[in-house]
Amino acid sequence: MHRMIEKYSGIIRNELDSIWPELPEPKSLYEPILYTLEAGGKRMRPVLLLAACDYYNGNLQQAAKAACGVELFHNFTLLHDDIMDNAELRRGRQTVYKRNGLNTAILSGDLMMVKVYQLLAQMSPELMVAVLPKFNDMAIKVCEGQQMDAEFETRNEVSIDEYLQMITYKTAVLPAAAMQIGAVCGGASDTEAQKFYDFGIEVGIAFQIKDDWLDVFGNPEETGKVKGGDILAGKKSMPVLLTLSCLDAEAKDSFLQTLHGNAPDKVERILAIMHELKIDEITMQWADKYFKKSLASLESIAGDDAGKNFFRAFADSLMERKN
Amino acid sequence: MHRMIEKYSGIIRNELDSIWPELPEPKSLYEPILYTLEAGGKRMRPVLLLAACDYYNGNLQQAAKAACGVELFHNFTLLHDDIMDNAELRRGRQTVYKRNGLNTAILSGDLMMVKVYQLLAQMSPELMVAVLPKFNDMAIKVCEGQQMDAEFETRNEVSIDEYLQMITYKTAVLPAAAMQIGAVCGGASDTEAQKFYDFGIEVGIAFQIKDDWLDVFGNPEETGKVKGGDILAGKKSMPVLLTLSCLDAEAKDSFLQTLHGNAPDKVERILAIMHELKIDEITMQWADKYFKKSLASLESIAGDDAGKNFFRAFADSLMERKN
């Protein structure tokens, strides 16, 4: 897996570097974009795109345009999300919002988004026509998911189904569409590409539930996070929603009051209720359910089984992560 | 002209209404978009697009997708511009920024932008492949122009050439690209479509210079604007830049000091200098130069001369406007 990631990362780096060989004018607009891209990150989404294309022995140079499009789009969402979250830091560095101000952060983000479509327009006409609708569907869902997340914060009741839809849109559709688009670039039929999409959605949901689990039940020494950070912030993550679904009206009110309050022993009190209801195990059962689903979707894809090892290893690495 | 505008407006209204027949979820994300589109405006850009397509007897239903894309894109820029300008009102109504808050204004704008590309992707593959690169080039220039405008505010020296580039990007490329894309939708060659683009750029520059002129030298009773609003705001509009180009270093400093100061007779003092230098006439000469250029570009377009009356009338109406 490591060698393939190396190979894909090299292609992505070359393609990204070739977008702006020199800083264009107006520099104040483009510099924050290059600053954002410099920070790197794991390039997980474009790597998945190229891997799906490679599964079908597709042309990786053509797919690299879409891969960079997906990576630029991801970075565009981070740039605008950081404004909405009033975030100070991103990948250990100051956010563009704090560094360059609101107006530049909005406009640099907007420009990145247009650049995404300029990259997609550089593919062969046949590929572009096939990829564009899939990319657009994904991008719309990402915006919708972001808004749902914000809405949920001000609501008392959020159903498990609503939460799953939100994390699907906000987190899972981007890597899922990356693999779907990669498969299309490799020559897969829409039906086969859809299986890669389903795999991505399911593994993305599993990952997000595991992430919620780690925040509440993980070992802070291993995760590097504040113990119960989500609880302190009053977030309606999966363990909270599962707890609420087990409580009667009165207990629910009391639980929510604690969650939204500022008692010094807030985290301990919430954890005590969760332990009693075995929310620890129930949350992990949900994550496992989606993890198993994802493996079944992967299984259903036609073709070389050994070629799927990369994607199995990817799913495993997400589920075993400690931080 | 009026009857053609009626016809095109009807097509645009139908197409816009069909995008979201019902308000999608999450409502809080889509409602501000419909609120923005409801406000209407003149729909000048999509009308120009359909007119250029119609000049070649093209399929207006196909072109309507691109026309609505252009209108949505224009409204997207207004939505984000209102954040950057901290604007209270737009078309006499509260801005989305003030009405729905920063986060929704950013995200609704982002979604509108994606929706633009979803509309473009609904055209026939051949048209889409031809239109997309032209649309992207325009969109990137609009972002760059917006940033240049913001940059110029903090700079002391701005050359006439820089200013012309800024207003070209910020204002003129959108209607110009609308006509270019319309011509392509109608079956025009890239060379002929480029002439429509040039016409749009030149008439757009002429319009913006005339607009600058009106702000400084227009009759407030006719324009409905505050006398010398741009001067009060210290804006480096065309009359200011032309004045600066006539002054020596010392006079320049003194002029800029007055312009950026708050003297009660600031407007009168600036106007006195401008009158002495005949900036009134010089500014109008610049506007006329671009207006005449635009008519020559229109002239150079092959085909039915009577069909160009619509575009002549459009250019005339922009130049004769009193407000």
Sum up the structure in keywords.
homodimer, 323 residues, mainly alpha, two-stranded antiparallel ribbon, 16 helices, globular
Chain-wise SSE layout:
Two copies of one chain form a homodimer.
Chain A: H1 2-19, H2 27-38, H3 44-55, H4 60-84, E1 89-90, E2 93-94, H5 96-100, H6 102-120, H7 125-153, H8 160-185, H9 190-217, H10 220-223, H11 229-232, H12 238-246, H13 249-260, H14 266-276, H15 279-300, H16 309-320
Antiparallel strand pairs in A: 1-2
Task: Explain what the structure shows.
Two copies of one chain form a homodimer. With 323 residues, chain A is mostly helical. In chain A, 77% of the residues lie in helices and 1% in strands. Chain A has a two-stranded antiparallel ribbon with strand order 1-2. Chain A binds chain B through residues 25-26, 28-29, 80, 83-84, 102-104, 106-107, 109-111, 113-115, 117-118, 121, 125, 128-129, 132-133, 136, 139-140, 143-144, 146-148, 150-151, and chain B through 25-26, 28-29, 80, 83-84, 102-104, 106-107, 109-111, 113-115, 117-118, 121, 125, 128-129, 132-133, 136, 139-140, 143-144, 146-148, 150-151.
